[in-house]
Amino acid sequence: MNGNPTFAVLLLLLTVALTVTSQVLLKQGMLGVGKSPRCLPQLLPFVWRAIANPRVLIGLLCGIAGIPSWVIALSLSDLSFAYPFMGLAIVLVLTLSSAVLHERIPVSRWIGVVAVAAGLWLAALR
Amino acid sequence: MGFNGRGRTVVNQHTQVPRRKNRTTAFALLYILLWVAFTVAGEVLLKQGLLEVGAAPKSLGGILPFLAASMMNIRVLLGLACPIVATVVWLFALSYAQLSFAYPFTGLAIVLVLILSDVVLHESIPLTRWAGIVVVSAGLLLASRGARA
Lengths: 126, 149
Known about the structure:
The complex is a heterodimer of chains A (about 130) and B (about 150). Chain A is mainly α and about 130 residues long. Chain A has helices spanning about 5-35, 45-50, 55-75, 80-100, 105-125. Chain A is globular and about 50 Å long. Chain A starts with a helix and ends with a helix. Chain B has helices at about 1-55, 65-70, 75-95, 100, 105-120, 125-145.
């Protein structure tokens, strides 16, 4: 790890916070927009309606805001250090899916997601 | 008639609801895997394109020519277009799937990018990386069971 570790961790946590917020807002927004149509001519109006939804729009902006902080964090730290934070994001998204979106999450999904996070850590090792 | 109607409704629920739920899950999975494909393709194309363009200059004056050269590279352009398509596909996926069902699949995209970056850079793939992709896949199989949409 090179650069300033504390700064890198702060940026990584900022990235995680923005990503997680983005995903919850996108899902909340899409709950209001409805399911995507299955015929082609209706796709574009559907995309437009989705982007016009305030939660979807703010969610997309949060996601975009996360890009520079992720890129700067990556330039300051190794992949093996940065990628486990994405595992943290997955676990946090699952927690918020349950707490905020009231999704019923089977125990198997919790175990599976912890495995995904562990696999990410393993895959990024060097 | 009311009795008959109710009887028929009950029969319909038993025969149709599971099938509709399966179709919803199939659509959700299709969009999620499309998202993974576009995300991974985007990262790899960008890396390949920028390998052709060369490293970004360290001086301010070199930035504009570097950006111009990047924008002339077909792989860089496709690499920039992929995440835009991926974002739209992700909205489609979220319109069908629970967030807790869809989001873990981002782990799949990340390990695939890790593996393919070794391939693109002609580096050998460490054993821990293979182990990681196996653990992530097993985790996803487990996580994607149960209520989905």
